[in-house]
Amino acid sequence: MQNRIIYPGIALCSALFFIFSINVFVFHQFSGIFTFAGAACTTAFLAMALNAWIIKDREITTAQIRQRQVLMAVICAVFAIGYGIFINKHNKAAVAQELDKHGIFAIGTVVDGKSELLSVSEARIFVKFYDENDKSYEAVAYIPKSNFDNFSKDQVVGLRFMPKHPEIIRLLLTDDEMTKYSGFKNRPLQLHDLMEVMKLPKGKRIQDYLNSVNLEWYMKPDEYGINYQYINKMKIQSIVVHQRGAQFINNTVDQNLFKRDIAKYRFTLISDSGAKEYQNDNFKLTIQDIDMPFSRENSGYGNSVEKVEYKPVTVYTLTRRFSDDAE
Questions:
Q1: Which end of the chain has less neighbouring CB within 10 Å, N or C?
Q2: Cα 31 to Cα 85: distance, rounded to the nearest angstrom
Q3: How do beta strands 306-320 and 245-249 pair?
Q4: Contact 297/110 with Cβ under 8 angstroms?
Q5: DSSP assignment of 138-155
Q6: pLDDT per residue over 73-97, tens digit each?
Q7: Class of residue 111 by CB neighbours under 10 A (exposed 0-12, middle 13-18, buried 19+)
Q8: CA angle, residues 72, 86, 30, in degrees to nearest 5
Q9: DSSP 216
Q10: In terms of DSSP bridges, do strands 122-130 and 268-271 run parallel, antiparallel, or are they unpaired?
């Protein structure tokens, strides 16, 4: 009778210990070990408690004992899996909360990436970044697997890291997060922005304007130093400004990116054969999906063997209808 009280109590204490008593950063660093140990220890005491309650000191037949042992095995297996998943998710939530409260913003660069077949929901992104003292670190961030293809080697990313535990980071995946933690305004590029850069002289003025929209634009001159391509290494987008217009290459297929702006500036659809063509009193807008070549390693980003793949993207070309600057 005494065991019927002691073993459930020990099982409960074991469960609570692995949830609340281990430092969240220590648990995070050795999550596999603590998850296994917590599930194994707590399940072992649960098995003892079940044995004390449904088998031991019971006047039952051998067949009934076997049936109850099978039931115990099923209960313990389900508990071990469920508890292991729970404490792992609980720790990730605790780490995210600490990063939100005490993390520091930094800009990093993707050096590798892994999307394991065994993981249903998560992928890993390996990032190199510098702290405020220019000390470099490399750390791994876990992201939803559905976002894995949005990243590539050498891509610039925004992140939060713990100053005392720089190996723990979280990538900032949205413009709202970037604005909140970086202190700089970040918003999606709009059709109005293409109109604005067409008014500016080529060079740093356009770069400065684009960086006021969102971070990490830089300019790359052509071989003659006449025209510039403006590239955002964080969003993997680019803009080319020429004499009569501007061309914007998005990082994904999305022909509705400027849907509201098209209505706002009273563009009318004039052609829908292949590329979509719109125009208003001053501008012509062409929207077309194309396949852009890019290099990617055969597994993740870090292997030595590369292959060229083609990624579908949407290209927006805005041109003036007339040679003057009327809008």
A1: N
A2: 11
A3: antiparallel
A4: no
A5: EEEEEEEGGGGGG--TT-
A6: 999 999 999 999 999 899 989 988 9
A7: middle
A8: 110
A9: -
A10: unpaired
237-242: strand order across its sheet: 217-221, 228-232, 237-242, 245-249, 306-320, 283-297, 276-279, 268-271
136 backbone dihedrals φ, ψ, rounded to 5°: -90, 150
DSSP secondary structure, 42-96, as one string: HHHHHHHHHHHHHTTT----HHHHHHHHHHHHHHHHHHHHHHHHHHHHHHHHHHH
Residue 301 is encoded by which pair of tokens? 């980003």
How far are the Cα atoms of 52, 109, 160, 220 from residue 140, in angstroms, in the given order?
Answer: 45, 11, 12, 30
Render pLDDT for 30-72 as a digit per residue (tens, 0 to 9): 888 999 999 999 999 999 988 888 777 667 778 888 888 899 9
Identify residue 17 by its one-letter amino acid code.
F
Question: Rounded to whole angstroms, how far apart are CA atoms 59 and 1?
Answer: 15
260 phi and psi angles, rounded to 5 deg: -65, -40
Cα separation, 230 vs 241, whole angstroms: 8
